[in-house]
């Protein structure tokens, strides 16, 4: 279809919205509620444009183009209407930019600036200002909410949770959980995708910044920090770098300059996870195939705490299918306060472990009461990528000018298999790299070891592999067709579980809570769209390919920790420190 | 609070009828009406129950229930009382009647008396303008009402109910 936008000719397929057509013509139309591929509902009215012959202005995010249409996006009428809409939003917005978590990272603020709003013409009653800090992961502030409904759509449609919904009507509308409950009292999985899409400061992470500074300044605390794989592919965005810029070395340098005593890598325990979780899978397969005994299959991955809470709440009958492995974050805490503390001659009670995570659910996971197997709280504080970015600024560090530095030894050594934990399909690929070699003695038969059918942004990915050429101890797996699936976003987890309930057979299923995997986590720099996801995913694969060692079982420090401390995978020490249990949760 | 088992099974039967229809989720409002008819209002437990049964998030059910004024979120008295506030009734002194009722019952609109007998509800024109001003108690209409008469009627009903 051909149309003109501000007299520029554009040709787009039928069904394209004016908003998308304008983007193609290089014209940006502001919006506060539209989310590419997720929500187009014309709720905020900021994207109004003028169409020749139309009586009223139209919302460009929901208006499909028509042949010969003449669209104007920057007329006086459009500018005045948009300004009026935003001024009305500001009149009830109970926020103060200077003290807001979203200052300089707020869509309402930047739209107001772009529209040249210098004054609040309408002084109205403010929204209901109620702060809900009931959960470990998130803080909601209804006074700042502009009712764009992005969080509702993401929570309900993408994540299949539905913890948030508009309540009451008109001016009294609030977005929140059922019965005006606190978020902690409903079945929110605390994935933070709401906070990731919120255009304003109405939902943000529960900040751990102050407690981390306090620990760093504490005279007798040794502060150990671990960095999750996905952070290195996104932190650069906080400092103006394009999406997909790898900043691993600069991040390590920044952490050192901030005063962290020891800089370690969650990658180390990601490698450890592969050994434990891979052996757990082989054990389940042995029970099922060789011993012909009943055992819970498929095995589901357990790295993603939002998914774990989702399964505990909505599919408790699948709890036996969840890998008993703790997530890499929690394994790290348990190892740092036992093995490492002893080795370094530190009293574990003075070891303070901080995680840097792309995730807000990790804040929830860290405070699960059972996560104290080291004899202490295994993880003391969890910072999101965004919080780390802010702390680096607070410390006055010129991030982009930093040299690249290396992680400390021992828990800073990792393989490329650990890096790819950040991507959807990555945990599966890392596990297959190791499991295939354990079973057959050969390399996984894929170019660059990448299991391409399981990579990328498609929501549900499946693969079947016939196992041949097994080593003698695994000869019972000869000819077995190993069926695996990879899903990301909890709505897709729900779909695969429904498939399994209907009789579909899988042996191993990777679930990541957030779209794209951890690189699209609720704690990553905003606003994550598919373009950014792809860039971050590419960066992570590049990091993996750049490593000398690409398979977890090749990590020399992993061999060392089994030799010195853990003894054997799934052994007694592993069981105590690296594995966990789950609980059935009430659905509200 | 436990919901009455007989009423629940009636609700179940109603939901079962809608379950196989296309777009069964669009029957939320009808199901909530049924629940209100059975329980007199929408208890939290009933909304939770419906959410599970229809596989819709509880927050969504609550969102619908709070959107429509017809749904009562709190228990309602045995006798719903309302004064028509349509134009005709209003100009003939409905507000004075309403104020007298509020004072007599010591409740405001949307509230229920402590003894559970009366709930004061909001009403617009009920199409009985010839009788203005009009008060309704349950299904019964009292025309040409005055503050004094209204108080008297309510006192009589209370006596009969207790």
TrEMBL record, chain A:
The keyword NAD applies. Keywords: 2Fe-2S, 4Fe-4S, Iron, Iron-sulfur, Membrane, Metal-binding, NAD, Repeat, Translocase. Its cofactor is [4Fe-4S] cluster; [2Fe-2S] cluster. One of its GO terms (cellular component) is membrane. It is found in: Membrane. Signal peptide: none annotated. GO terms for molecular function: 2 iron, 2 sulfur cluster binding; 4 iron, 4 sulfur cluster binding; ferredoxin hydrogenase activity; iron ion binding. Residues 77-116 form the 4Fe-4S His(Cys)3-ligated-type domain. Residues 136-167, 177-208 form the 4Fe-4S ferredoxin-type domain. Residues 1-77 form the 2Fe-2S ferredoxin-type domain. Belongs to the complex I 75 kDa subunit family. This is Ferredoxin.
From TrEMBL, chain B:
[2Fe-2S] cluster binds at residues 84, 89, 125, 129. This is NADH dehydrogenase. Belongs to the complex I 24 kDa subunit family. Transmembrane segments: none annotated. It holds the Pfam family 2Fe-2S_thioredx. It comes from Candidatus Raymondbacteria bacterium RIFOXYD12_FULL_49_13. The lineage of its organism: Bacteria, Raymondiibacteriota. Keywords: 2Fe-2S, Iron, Iron-sulfur, Metal-binding. It comes from the Bacteria. SUPFAM superfamilies: Thioredoxin-like. InterPro entries: NADP_DH_HndA-like, NuoE-like, NuoE_dom, NuoE_N, Thioredoxin-like_sf. GO terms for molecular function: 2 iron, 2 sulfur cluster binding; metal ion binding; oxidoreductase activity. Binds 1 [2Fe-2S] cluster. Its cofactor is [2Fe-2S] cluster.
